[in-house]
Amino acid sequence: MNTFLALLRGINVGGNAPVDMKQLKACFESLDFINVRTYINTGNVIFDSPMKNKSVIIESIEAKINESFGFKIPIVLRDKENLKTLCDTFPKTWINNDEYKTDILFLWDDYDSTDSLQLIKQNPEVDVLIYVSGSIGWCIRRDHYKESGMHKFIGSTLYKNMTARNINTVRKLNAMMWNEKSS
């Protein structure tokens, strides 16, 4: 059995693409995924599947979401080993709180490369970016946000080809994937 995390892009944000988490869970269960769990209202779904082919899994989820909710939602799929690698690689000091903003950008496969770092207009004096297989971690001090490239990121090519979660959410999802009791 394989444990996966599906990250849905753009649901329940600003009133757009409204998706009820109980209905989303039922949608995944209808695909014969087991141990389906959701976390917060932004489209984080952990599930187990005997299937290994990520492309087939992604296609089936995207089709079912479109059928169930009436709109297309792109997803990023990661297995629990990938999420653990991310959490083990990004510095433990990277947090999301009143002082720091730390986001993990989960990249679409076509953008899964260190070359994607070049698509971000960053300010090396305040932005700290690290590429880790399938993602880019981005940490800045909140009081430097106006100087950061982060506020110019929305609408860029890379922005349209990824979905983001803050580091605290990513660490919680990782814990959920490895420890059934934490859900």
Describe this structure in words.
- This protein is an alpha+beta fold and 183 residues long.
- The chain has two domains: 2-79, Alpha-Beta Plaits; 82-178, bacterial protein sp0830 like (Alpha-Beta Plaits).
- Helix content is 26%, strand content 27%.
- It has four helices and eight strands.
- The strands form two sheets. Strands 2-3-1-4 form a four-stranded antiparallel sheet, with helices on both faces. Strands 6-7-5-8 form a four-stranded antiparallel sheet.
- A hairpin with a 4-residue loop joins strand 2 (34-39) and strand 3.
- Helix 3 (80-89) crosses helix 4.
- The longest helix has 16 residues, at 54-69.
- It is globular, with a radius of gyration of 16 Å.
- The two termini are 18 Å apart.
- Provide the domain count: 2
- Number of helical segments? 4
Fraction of helical residues:
25-40%
Mean pLDDT: 91
Order of H and E elements = EHEEHEHEEEEH
CATH class of the largest domain: Alpha Beta
Examine the coordinates and then state which fold CATH places here, giving the name of the CATH topology of the largest domain: Alpha-Beta Plaits
* Dominant shape: globular
Oligomer: single chain
> Can you identify the CATH superfamily of the largest domain?
bacterial protein sp0830 like
The secondary structure category is: alpha+beta
Work out the number of β strands.
Answer: 8
| Spatial strand arrangement across the major sheet | 2-3-1-4
Uncertain residue segments: none
CATH architecture of the largest domain: 2-Layer Sandwich
How would you sum up the major sheet? Answer: 4 strands, antiparallel
